[in-house]
Amino acid sequence: MKRTTIKLSDDLDARVRHEAERRGMTVSEWTREAIMAHLPGDGRRQLLAAGAGHSGEDDISERIHEILDREWARRHREAS
């Protein structure tokens, strides 16, 4: 593995360190991941929104009509 030095502003450095810590990664791991996400041609697509709609519930598909009815009623009440 090669070592590369880059210069960052204090603000950007703090943001990178905070994000790496938040994700439980080292700054080096986070930086490699960020660079790879911006390089074309590695053959892998990044699904940036993967998990964005995760609700923590495991029976949504079974209760979809109940959930949609409740949401429709709530929005109808708000619009009135």
UniProtKB/TrEMBL annotation:
Residues 2-39 form the Ribbon-helix-helix protein CopG domain. CDD domains: RHH_CopG_NikR-like. Signal peptide: none annotated. It holds the Pfam family RHH_1. It comes from the Bacteria. This is CopG family transcriptional regulator.
